[in-house]
Structure formats: C-alpha cells, structure tokens
Amino acid sequence: MPHEEHRKRAQRTLKCAVITISTSRYTKRADQIHVKDESGDIICRMLRKNGHKVLYRAIVPDSMTDIRTKLLNAFQLGIDAVITTGGTGISPTDVTIESVSPLLERELPGFGELFRQRSSESIGTASIMSRALLGVMHGMLIACLPGSPDGVKTGMELLMPELQHASSIAKGS
User: Fold this and answer.
1) pLDDT band for position 172 (50/70/90)?
2) Which of 23, 34, 145, 164 has CB 3.0 to 4.6 Å from 155, enough for a Cys bridge?
3) CATH no. for residue 164?
C-alpha cells in the first residue's frame, strides 16, 4: 500500500502516555503534586494540539525498574504511543535507553539520526551526546526524548507528522 494510503487509513486520535524520567523531579510525597515539568507539559500540549489524548502521565526517577514498570502500565492501558523525556544523555544516571531498548521488538534508527542532525543546527557538535530513540513494543510506539525543553520541541516536531502513520503500521493496520 502506498505511503499516502497508509496515512489516510491511520487512526486519527491516539491514546498517549507521557513519562518524565528525572530523579530531581520525582517525589514520593503525596503533598507535592505541583512538580514543575516543563518538558512533559510541552509534550502534552503538542499531542493535544494535534488531536491526541494524553491518558497517562507519570514522573519517575532514573531507575530501570520504575521506567519499565510505567511502560508496562501504559501497555496494559491500551496506549498507542508513549513519549518519554529525560535520561537520554551519557551521564552515569541516564538509564532511559538501557531501560527501553531491551523491550523493543523494532527500533527506528532514522529518528535518532534525524534528531541529532536537526539538533546540530542549534547546539552544534554537542548533539552527538543525545541518544534519542524511537521503537515499537507489542504494537505500542515508544519515543525517548531528551529532558531539555528545546530537545523535546525538536523531537516532537519530528514525531508529530508521522505519529499516526507509524502507530498504524506498528499495529499492523
């Protein structure tokens, strides 16, 4: 089926999850519900602006167990696409990619390549330190974006034109 035909048949409104991975923003204290999460807010805004529903949102520490638990929760809720922010760099605490990669059945390396190319226009060679990722777990898209608001905007600008199309193909529709 031609590319354009796939796009026409793609589900219009996706059920999405946004997971912020940041030990500094995470808190177990129930009385601290107003945690500032600018990057997560940007993702939610852009998804909603494009007609999608954010049905699940979480903030987790830089922990493989916590990240994987939230991804599995999203899958059990029937989420079409999960977008994470944070933990994609190269510091010892950045474990998002190590947490997500083993769960993926398919990876779309072109996303990370294009993300770094686009990022280099604004931050130069520092873009080589980003490990932005897009892949599929049991038909659910998972995009891992950096924690910076500018990195999130760049990643979302790349994702939005193809999100519905990629989700449709990932599900085999």
Assistant:
1) confident
2) 145
3) 3.40.980.10
